[in-house]
Write a structure and sequence with these properties.
mainly beta, Jelly Rolls, five-stranded antiparallel beta sheet, 12 strands, 52% strand, NPCBM_sf, Galactose-bd-like_sf, Glyco_hyd_98_carb-bd, Glycosyl hydrolase family 98 putative carbohydrate-binding module domain-containing protein
Length: 125
Protein backbone atom coordinates (compact mmCIF):
# COMPACT_ATOMS: atom_id res chain seq x y z
CA UNK A 1 0.00 0.00 0.00
CA UNK A 2 1.18 3.50 -0.79
CA UNK A 3 -0.25 6.67 0.74
CA UNK A 4 -1.17 9.48 -1.67
CA UNK A 5 0.43 7.70 -4.65
CA UNK A 6 -0.25 4.69 -6.84
CA UNK A 7 1.09 1.30 -5.81
CA UNK A 8 4.02 1.57 -8.23
CA UNK A 9 6.00 -1.65 -8.25
CA UNK A 10 7.65 -3.68 -5.48
CA UNK A 11 9.67 -1.02 -3.65
CA UNK A 12 8.18 1.22 -0.97
CA UNK A 13 7.67 4.79 -2.17
CA UNK A 14 7.94 3.99 -5.89
CA UNK A 15 4.37 5.05 -6.77
CA UNK A 16 3.25 7.84 -9.08
CA UNK A 17 0.40 10.35 -8.74
CA UNK A 18 -2.96 8.59 -8.37
CA UNK A 19 -4.57 8.79 -11.81
CA UNK A 20 -7.86 7.21 -12.90
CA UNK A 21 -9.02 7.78 -16.50
CA UNK A 22 -6.85 10.89 -16.72
CA UNK A 23 -8.15 12.43 -13.48
CA UNK A 24 -5.32 13.07 -10.99
CA UNK A 25 -5.98 12.80 -7.25
CA UNK A 26 -3.71 14.31 -4.62
CA UNK A 27 -4.91 12.09 -1.76
CA UNK A 28 -5.73 8.40 -1.47
CA UNK A 29 -4.38 4.90 -1.08
CA UNK A 30 -2.71 2.95 -3.88
CA UNK A 31 -2.81 -0.84 -3.57
CA UNK A 32 -2.33 -3.98 -5.65
CA UNK A 33 -5.02 -6.66 -5.69
CA UNK A 34 -5.60 -8.60 -3.61
CA UNK A 35 -5.39 -6.21 -0.70
CA UNK A 36 -7.02 -5.67 2.68
CA UNK A 37 -6.41 -2.38 4.49
CA UNK A 38 -7.91 -2.52 7.98
CA UNK A 39 -8.14 0.19 10.59
CA UNK A 40 -9.66 0.66 14.02
CA UNK A 41 -12.25 3.42 14.48
CA UNK A 42 -13.47 2.57 17.99
CA UNK A 43 -17.10 3.11 17.00
CA UNK A 44 -16.35 6.83 16.55
CA UNK A 45 -16.96 7.20 12.81
CA UNK A 46 -20.00 7.23 10.58
CA UNK A 47 -19.07 6.95 6.92
CA UNK A 48 -16.33 5.94 4.46
CA UNK A 49 -16.25 7.48 0.97
CA UNK A 50 -13.85 7.27 -1.98
CA UNK A 51 -13.59 7.43 -5.74
CA UNK A 52 -12.23 4.04 -6.82
CA UNK A 53 -10.73 2.59 -9.97
CA UNK A 54 -7.76 1.04 -11.75
CA UNK A 55 -4.73 3.32 -11.98
CA UNK A 56 -3.71 4.55 -15.43
CA UNK A 57 -0.09 3.45 -14.88
CA UNK A 58 -0.94 -0.06 -16.15
CA UNK A 59 -2.36 1.03 -19.50
CA UNK A 60 -5.39 -0.97 -20.63
CA UNK A 61 -4.77 -3.86 -18.23
CA UNK A 62 -6.22 -4.54 -14.81
CA UNK A 63 -9.58 -5.62 -13.41
CA UNK A 64 -10.56 -5.25 -9.76
CA UNK A 65 -13.47 -5.06 -7.35
CA UNK A 66 -13.69 -2.82 -4.27
CA UNK A 67 -15.46 -3.62 -0.99
CA UNK A 68 -15.96 -1.75 2.28
CA UNK A 69 -16.54 -3.90 5.37
CA UNK A 70 -17.51 -2.79 8.89
CA UNK A 71 -17.09 -5.32 11.71
CA UNK A 72 -17.49 -8.27 9.33
CA UNK A 73 -20.46 -6.88 7.41
CA UNK A 74 -20.09 -5.80 3.80
CA UNK A 75 -21.32 -2.22 3.50
CA UNK A 76 -20.53 -1.56 -0.16
CA UNK A 77 -19.06 -3.16 -3.28
CA UNK A 78 -18.47 -2.03 -6.82
CA UNK A 79 -18.54 -5.06 -9.04
CA UNK A 80 -15.76 -5.42 -11.61
CA UNK A 81 -13.95 -2.24 -12.68
CA UNK A 82 -11.45 -1.98 -15.54
CA UNK A 83 -8.89 0.60 -16.60
CA UNK A 84 -11.27 1.77 -19.34
CA UNK A 85 -13.76 3.00 -16.72
CA UNK A 86 -14.01 6.34 -14.96
CA UNK A 87 -13.56 6.44 -11.19
CA UNK A 88 -16.63 5.15 -9.39
CA UNK A 89 -17.88 6.69 -6.15
CA UNK A 90 -18.28 4.24 -3.29
CA UNK A 91 -19.47 4.86 0.26
CA UNK A 92 -20.63 2.91 3.27
CA UNK A 93 -22.26 3.64 6.60
CA UNK A 94 -19.86 2.46 9.29
CA UNK A 95 -21.73 3.84 12.30
CA UNK A 96 -20.95 1.86 15.44
CA UNK A 97 -18.22 -0.25 13.81
CA UNK A 98 -14.87 -0.80 15.47
CA UNK A 99 -12.87 -2.20 12.55
CA UNK A 100 -13.16 -1.05 8.93
CA UNK A 101 -11.69 -3.05 6.04
CA UNK A 102 -11.04 -1.68 2.54
CA UNK A 103 -10.75 -4.76 0.33
CA UNK A 104 -9.71 -5.03 -3.31
CA UNK A 105 -10.00 -8.35 -5.19
CA UNK A 106 -8.60 -9.42 -8.55
CA UNK A 107 -12.15 -9.78 -9.97
CA UNK A 108 -11.54 -13.50 -10.38
CA UNK A 109 -9.14 -13.31 -13.32
CA UNK A 110 -5.73 -13.16 -11.63
CA UNK A 111 -3.96 -10.09 -10.32
CA UNK A 112 -1.76 -9.08 -13.27
CA UNK A 113 -1.65 -5.26 -13.49
CA UNK A 114 -4.35 -4.84 -10.80
CA UNK A 115 -3.20 -1.46 -9.43
CA UNK A 116 -6.22 -0.18 -7.55
CA UNK A 117 -6.87 3.27 -6.14
CA UNK A 118 -8.93 4.47 -3.19
CA UNK A 119 -8.80 8.07 -4.43
CA UNK A 120 -9.88 10.87 -2.08
CA UNK A 121 -10.65 8.21 0.56
CA UNK A 122 -12.26 9.78 3.62
CA UNK A 123 -13.53 8.55 6.95
CA UNK A 124 -16.08 10.87 8.58
CA UNK A 125 -15.83 10.84 12.37
Amino acid sequence: MERDTSNGESAAGDGHPITISGAVYVKGLGVHAPSDVSFYTGKACGKVTADVGVDDEKGTRGTVTFEIWADGTKGASTGTLTNAMLAQPVSADISGAQVIRLIVTDAGDGNDSDHAEWADARVSC
